[in-house]
Amino acid sequence: MKTVKLAPPAIDTSFMEVPAVVYVVSRHHGHKRFLSRSAAINNLANFMVDETFRRSGWPTNEPDQPVMRDGFLVHLRGDRTREYYSAHQRCTRRIRRLLAKKRDIQKWHEKHEELKQQYADHLNHKPF
Q1: pTM of the model
Q2: Which of 10, 74, 117, 126 is 20 to 30 A from 2, alpha carbon to alpha carbon?
């Protein structure tokens, strides 16, 4: 019989907190460290939405704008598209929801362990 190792959930591998006051974000071959949780969530959403748009062939930016500067033709990158912003907002909301759910599950497990310990103590003091 073959034993199968279960991989940790994707949210655990892509968003983790290291012992220092740094959040590490790694997803789709992109790795960055951030000092704030909100910046880490924002950039995780960037990684995920950029990769999704790249795979689907959708543009993430408006077309480049040619501009003359100091006698040279320079192409300024266009702004992000509305579709990109809405996808980024949805992704950020989902990441926050996943992390909140993970926190709630952790609290439940802690409370469950405490109740199990209380029950075990109660059984140990059984008078008969």
Answers
A1: 0.71
A2: 10
